[in-house]
Amino acid sequence: MVRNSRRRLVRVSRDAARHSRRTMDGMDLIDAFDSAFEEWDRLVHEVGPRQWEEPTPCSDWNVRDLVNHLVSEHLWAPHLLAGETLAQVGDRYEGDVVGGDPVAAWERAGSGSWPAFHREGALHGDVHVTGGKSPATEYGWQMTTDLAVHGWDLARGIGVRSRMHDELADAVYAHIAPMAESWQGAGVFDPPVPVPDDAVPQERLVALLGRHP
Fold it and tell me: How high is the pLDDT of residue 27?
């Protein structure tokens, strides 16, 4: 399970972020973000009208809660990438931000976050997060991780197959594996789940973050 990570999971060190523009397998951050974003968007549009209360692998969240969480994160993103502080944003995106139409709420949030991440220079410098500042690239990888892994959660919740690309799963895994133990120690994720040696990339990724593929 991924516990509430609004305004980012934990503050990571700059040393951990040195390779964050590209992961070890060479996938560019923006390419990874776009791949995860596209799959999450597809899945949100596949949620049936009676599926919003269905459970997900995140035991504290049903399908609607999960979408609400991602909508909130993506409403925050343009502000943080523009250099605003947490105090400047305030509590406007706390609580229920999807109302009676979660799909439309996601579309509005995504229409702001996607161009914010693609703005020239957006991933240079730092962003304000809980506890101080973090490199914008690290923030980008954490947002990409949430899109990818919660996309898998959403697929499970609505009973469809995740289409996460192997390259994306490998890239996210390579980026977060060195930090996973510290995140789990902080209570962000459940302990990793063993998987067989022939597990596919998305199975390895979600198992690392405490899910049973």
Answer: 82
